[in-house]
Amino acid sequence: MRVAIDAMGGDHAPAELVAGAIEAVSGGHIEVALVGDEASIRAELDSRGGCPDGISVVHASDVVRGHESPVDAIRKRPDTSILRTIQLVGEKAADACVCAGSTGAAVAAAMMTLHRLPGARRPGIAVPFPANNRNGVCLLLDVGANPHCRPVHLAQYAIMGSAYYRAMFGEAEPRVGLLNIGQEEGKGTSLVRQATQALRSEPVNFVGNIEGRDLFGGAVEVGVSDGFVGNIILKAAEGFAEVLLGQVARQVGESNPALLQDLKRRVDYAEYGGAPLLGVNGVVMICHGRSKARAIGNAIRAAAKAVEQDINSHIVRGLNEESAGIQS
Amino acid sequence: MRVAIDAMGGDHAPAELVAGAIEAVSGGHIEVALVGDEASIRAELDSRGGCPDGISVVHASDVVRGHESPVDAIRKRPDTSILRTIQLVGEKAADACVCAGSTGAAVAAAMMTLHRLPGARRPGIAVPFPANNRNGVCLLLDVGANPHCRPVHLAQYAIMGSAYYRAMFGEAEPRVGLLNIGQEEGKGTSLVRQATQALRSEPVNFVGNIEGRDLFGGAVEVGVSDGFVGNIILKAAEGFAEVLLGQVARQVGESNPALLQDLKRRVDYAEYGGAPLLGVNGVVMICHGRSKARAIGNAIRAAAKAVEQDINSHIVRGLNEESAGIQS
To answer: Is the per-residue pLDDT at A218 higher than 50?
Structure first.
């Protein structure tokens, strides 16, 4: 099992990505290919006692910067670390990959290099959040790969999210809810009203419309929204959590650092293994830019598990069972 | 100064509403009219030592239930406590009102009874949230009065939210941001792209697009979104906070109850005085259904302050200055 990682992506590159890779290979059954500027990566490995068994370095001379158009960068520059990372998956030189750099660049590179899974209309990013359900975690998708959704995209997100949740968290029939401003049918935008109808005929355990509270409150395992709403929820939840954590830190940070650490972990989705880009023909795990070694290690392990669970076969099977009536 | 309150609205009616009213009149300069079933309200007052100076009771025989259509209830039933509460404002028998029952019913009753302010296209509900800015609070509007927005509605929300923030929190030039999935112009839905252009020519301190993190992170005082997105943010933030608070409670609830209380207060928007329905010709403060006495007391005081600050004159003046070019 070999996982490629863009060692130059994220706020703490390459140090924390190298450290996360070292942690991940320590278990023995995962190998990691660190992709990026070889000199920087080797220097980082040397500062941590050398290159351990299971780690290899793949040189890439270029890097996508935060301020540039991700699509342009992927199209025009053939040797960026993120493109090379995803190409390793396309070339079967890696089984999966982990990216903590520009999310837009990861999505663009995956679309151009790996292409969509058969039957998948649009890929979606599924973020794990803490939730008061049996597994303590819910998935929300899409959170930004597809801001302009049609009903069929939402229906497919339900199928893809269910397949991922089932494979990764062992829940036989994950409950799926559609994010809306009330539980009653007929509420909300025309997109969600049409999607509600579409979801009723899909091979998923659809429980109906849900509100934001239900998502975290344990009413579902999978929440579906368009990428515009999902991205705003993701960022708002992050921001709101930061305000609360700041308050906890001011009041008990010194007397109870363990509480603060624990809360921080709970709000950091990379702790749950990163956010998979579902619907592309490969396993691509996206991490928050601020991920540190522990979160990166978790994402590498989650990527490996998704491969072992053969997640994309489950998704393709689910999409094949998709209601033939939903073509809009 | 007389504030009417729907004593039958909310999860803890009438007990906590009566208790909140008693708290609010203790300061001396506010009178409160408790509207609803007189026998229940009098019994509640009796159990708290009788009816204090400054409190009066206005009987209403009916109540809007949670499961019914708010618009139908307001249209068809003339003696519901929420309609009577808002009518007191329309009849000038009260200067402002506070409602913790059905938000939909409050909006419908306010629209039918008080009507819109001159120049206001659609009313919007502005929720105060904790934020890392100078005043420790930001406003988000709309959070559900208007799920189907046009660009001009968002531009007006910026004007109304700025006027309210300025009057209530003493910030001369509140910064306004438009909720989007990135700060760059050109991102997001066609609604937000058009609204970005509209906002540039409005008499507000518009800082551009913001993400959910910026809203709570202190980048703005006022965040503007359509009612669909705003309502989902509101509910998601509530739900996410509940998961985090549950964790804090499990870990330190017994050893540090003060921390838990403080965090609960910070996430409860009624602690900041409830959520005003802006754009109607009267002061209507909406509280969360689960509000307890302290939050209700704060909302009554905030309603009184909004009247003292003559908030609606400021809003009308702002709308009159509105760019003549924005008519879409």
So the answer is: yes
How close is the nearest chain A Cα to the Cα of B197, in Å?
A: 19
Q: DSSP letter for A178, please.
A: E
Q: How many CB atoms lie within 10 A of CB A309?
A: 17
End-to-end CA distance of chain A: 39
Q: Which residues contact A72 (CB under 8 A, 6 or more apart)?
A: none
Q: Is the four-CA dihedral B150, B151, B154, B160 of positive or negative sign?
A: negative
> What are the chain B neighbours of A213 within 8 Å (beta carbons)?
235-236, 238-239, 242
Contact criterion met (CB below 8 Å) for B5 and B97: yes
Percentage of chain B exceeding pLDDT 70: 97
The candidate with the shortest Cα–Cα distance to A64, out of A55, A74, A56, is A74
Least confident of A166-170, A185-189, B128-132, B269-273: B269-273
Going by C-beta distance under 8 Å and a sequence separation of 6 or more, which residues neighbour residue B295?
B20, B268, B270, B271, B274, B287, B288
> CB-hemisphere CA count at 13 Å for A247?
25
How close A263 gets to chain B, by Cα (Å)? Answer: 7
Task: Report DSSP state, residue B275.
Answer: E
Q: Say if the Cβ atoms of A213 and B236 lie within 8 Å.
A: yes
Angstrom distances, CA of residue A25 to CA of A7, A18, A54, A177, A269:
15, 11, 6, 37, 21
Contact A189 B234 (CB under 8 A): no
pLDDT averaged over every residue in chain A:
92
Place of tokens 């076969």: A313
* Best of A103, A181, A288 to mutate (most B CBs within 10 Å, chain B): A181
Q: Is A232 on the interface with B (CB under 8 A)?
A: yes
Q: Which residues of A touch B262 (CB under 8 A)?
A: 247, 251
Distance (Å, whole) CA B269 – CA B276: 11
The ipTM is 0.88
B/e letters for A213-250, b = 16+ CB within 10 Å, e = fewer, are bbbbbbbbbbbbbbbbbbbbbbbbbbbbbbbbbbbbbe
Q: Do B232 and A244 touch (CB under 8 A)?
A: no
Number of Cβ within a 10 Å radius of residue B314: 17
Distances (CA, A) of A212 to A98, A187, B122, B244, B287: 28, 14, 24, 15, 18
CB of A184 less than 8 A from some CB of B: no
pLDDT tens for A25-79 read 998 899 999 999 999 999 999 999 999 999 999 999 999 987 889 999 999 999 9
Give the pTM: 0.91
From chain B, the residues in CB contact with A180 under 8 A are 232
CA-closest candidate to residue A144, choices A185, A102, A95:
A102
For chain B, percent helix, then strand, then coil, each to nearest 5?
45, 20, 35
CA angle B177, B181, B186 (to 5 degrees): 85
Compute how many other C-beta atoms are within 10 angstroms of the C-beta atom of residue B211. 22
Average pLDDT, chain B: 92
